[in-house]
Amino acid sequence: MKQILLLEDDQSFGYILSEYLNMQDFQVTWAKSAEEALKLLQKQHFDLAILDIMLPKMNGFELAEILKRENEDLPFIFLSARSLKIDKLKGFKLGAYDYVTKPIDEELLVAKIRALLTLTQKKVTTQSSYTIGKYDFFPALLKLVFQDGSEIRLTARETALLSMLCQHHNQLLLRKKALKEIWGIQDEFSRKSMDVFISHLRKYLSKDPSISIENVHGKGFIFKY
Amino acid sequence: MKQILLLEDDQSFGYILSEYLNMQDFQVTWAKSAEEALKLLQKQHFDLAILDIMLPKMNGFELAEILKRENEDLPFIFLSARSLKIDKLKGFKLGAYDYVTKPIDEELLVAKIRALLTLTQKKVTTQSSYTIGKYDFFPALLKLVFQDGSEIRLTARETALLSMLCQHHNQLLLRKKALKEIWGIQDEFSRKSMDVFISHLRKYLSKDPSISIENVHGKGFIFKY
DNA sequence: AGTTTTCATTAAGTTTTTTAATCCTTGCTT
DNA sequence: AAGCAAGGATTAAAAAACTTAATGAAAACT
Question: Distance, in angstroms, between B52 CA and closest chain A CA?
């Protein structure tokens, strides 16, 4: 569940919004001042921050500047009653993902939040382990472990390819996509090389017959399990 | 310079917007139909797409779906005269960064674009090139180019190590840190391997005597230039 | 049915990375 | 300050990983 930090000094609005976001399956932590927000940020991880701008002491802009300096990749959205263009420009310049003016449309806000989270999370995706039939696959350890405890050590490319297959399991993984991601710019030549690795993986995974890497002619592969 | 794909069938609006974006130092390619946009996407790399929704044949939503399926991580913004909430929701659901309604404020649009580009580019972390004294280093191409045009091809590990050194240039890069990042949390054994690569890099960079990779006993290296 | 393109697998060739060996440097100990 | 251990530089060798080639089979196209 995604952790959201909400900075908002207005009691009733803050309450309503945090309840709404909670309902939408976000884990909201509500800070009523920038100072409180900073303390929370040091203790806990957040996936996204929603920042009100006008606050009694330190304002949302100032907090954002600190965030950018310290907490590098926490994405944030400004939320403010001020709809002046100059404020919006300042917001974006500070690296905000969006600048939403009150009154807000909660449904749209949630849609934006989800889009943003998908975007920022995308890169990090690699799970730390996958269960593939009777195997366990540990990408970071370059290891594939069979039910009976026997291990197969994988090479870097084998691991990269198997990871991609896992991320798309039971869906088509386009050749083009894998080539681009693992081999970099797709010179149509490494096609051959990729085939060799598919072949390796099939061999490694052959102890469980319910697993298969099936080819879709001209398109790519489907990793079924 | 950032490459932007603009999909817009309205002649005059498309012209004005692409001119404006050009002025703001973006490299804009203007497609007048979704089909044309698709062709361009196959040939060229873009950093961002701006998609009009209402188009004669294939519309912007449909194109976005294809993009999501095929072209991995090209971020896009919808641009439309339709301001219905249902359209906006659909836009975000498709993974758009934003949904902007006409008439647009060009200045705000550019601010958003810049913010989004920063956001998406950040993930890739590694700069696309570094100037090191009389050399240019292109991590993605695994190349080190000397002033006189002569090229040195680097291996994956050489590139990874040189990238890290660049990121910390004129500061101490801890051995431990490099080992962890490049070799994975590793046994003190690949220490030796790392030394070999340091040695390679020194040799490659020896044509410019103002560059040096200096050792800090027991700690790591400082890349000076 | 024949032809062309794509795919699977094995083997051979090449490149990259690691390990080893040797000598040098740094900083500590007495 | 001499001796010594631990860290570092460089080159060469061995090992591992990756790519290319070769062959035969399957799929799609005419």
Answer: 19
CA B121 to chain centre: 5
Q: How many CB atoms lie within 10 A of CB B197?
A: 20
CA B171/CA B79 separation, integer angstroms: 45
Chain region(s) in chain A for CATH 3.40.50.2300: 2-122
- Using an 8 Å Cβ cutoff, are A102 and A79 in contact? yes
**Which pLDDT band, with edges at 50, 70 and 90, does B67 fall under?**
confident
- Cα(B163)–Cα(B137) distance, rounded to whole angstroms? 9
pLDDT by residue (tens digit) across B143-182? Answer: 999 999 999 999 989 999 999 999 889 989 989 889 888 8
* CATH class for the region spanning B2-124: alpha beta
Q: Which nucleotides of C are covered by protein (CB under 7 A)?
A: 5-11, 15-21, 26-27
Beta-carbon separation of A108 and B123 below 8 A:
no
What's the CATH fold of domain A130-224? Arc Repressor Mutant, subunit A (1.10.10)
Q: Where in chain A is the domain with CATH 1.10.10.10?
A: 130-224
The one-letter code for the residue type at B208 is D
Question: Chain B, 143-182: which CBs lie within 7 Å of strand C?
Answer: 153, 155-158
With respect to CATH, is domain A2-122 assigned 3.40.710.10?
Answer: no
The answer to whether the pTM exceeds 0.70 is: no
Q: Which part of chain B has CATH 3.40.50.2300? A: 2-124
Across the range B12-38, mean pLDDT stands at 94
